[in-house]
Specification:
Keywords: Antioxidant, Oxidoreductase, Peroxidase, Redox-active center. This is Glutathione-dependent peroxiredoxin. Belongs to the peroxiredoxin family. Prx5 subfamily. It catalyses: a hydroperoxide + 2 glutathione = an alcohol + glutathione disulfide + H2O. The chain is α+β, with helices and mostly antiparallel strands and 175 residues long. It has a single domain, classed as Glutaredoxin (3-Layer(aba) Sandwich), CATH 3.40.30.10. Helices cover 28% and strands 30% of the residues. The protein has 6 helices and 10 strands, in the order βββαβααβαβαββββα. The protein is globular, with a radius of gyration of 16 Å. The chain starts with a strand and ends with a helix.
């Protein structure tokens, strides 16, 4: 596979600001692809949605549990991308106790579309969503992608088979 650059998009995130008073000390912070990927080794995995069964029961928890193993292999960051907004991603991470994996909202699906992983989930009332995948990105270049088989619009489900943390770890160990 010839390396392809990650798309140049802006992620609309929320970050804590202790200077703000009140019950919601968070503010908007736009982060670009370049800021996230330039000069870094990043594992990114995309999934259909926060709070959905396979995403919550195995996909995200698998990467959280193996986070240190990725760090030990020189990975700067492990990122979960989903076509959800920043508020949903924050609450999902809080509900699952996620402390190490960065939950990156792709609310408009621009990143997912830019890497060719945006699919329609309209039959389930979910709009456009990310296909389930994992990829290794080095200095903004997509070096390896593990895309779940059967890529299509309105799938009945997308199980975690090859985009899991173990598959990515095995790949990185052989690099």
């Amino acid at each position: 596979m010839t390396a392809k650059s990650v798309p140049n998009v802006t992620f609309h995130t929320r970050v804590r600001n202790d200077q703000l008073e009140g019950p919601n000390p968070y503010e908007w912070k736009d982060v670009t692809s370049e800021e996230i990927f330039a000069g870094r080794k990043v594992v990114v995995f995309g999934l259909p949605g926060a709070f959905t069964p396979a995403c919550s029961e195995s996909h995200l928890p698998g990467y959280e549990e193996t986070h240190q193993a990725f760090r030990d292999l020189g990975i700067d960051e492990v990122i979960c991308v989903s076509v959800n907004d920043a508020f949903v991603m924050f609450q999902w991470g809080k509900a699952l106790g996620i402390e190490n994996v960065r939950l990156l909202p792709d609310g408009n699906g621009e990143f997912s579309e830019g890497i060719g992983m945006l699919v329609k989930r309209t039959a389930q009332g979910m709009g456009n969503r990310s296909w389930r995948y994992a990829m290794y990105v080095e200095d903004g270049q997509i070096e390896k992608v593990f895309s779940e088989p059967g890529f299509m619009d309105n799938p009945p489900g997308v199980p975690v088979q090859i985009s899991d943390a173990k598959t990515m770890l095995d790949y990185l160990k052989q690099r």
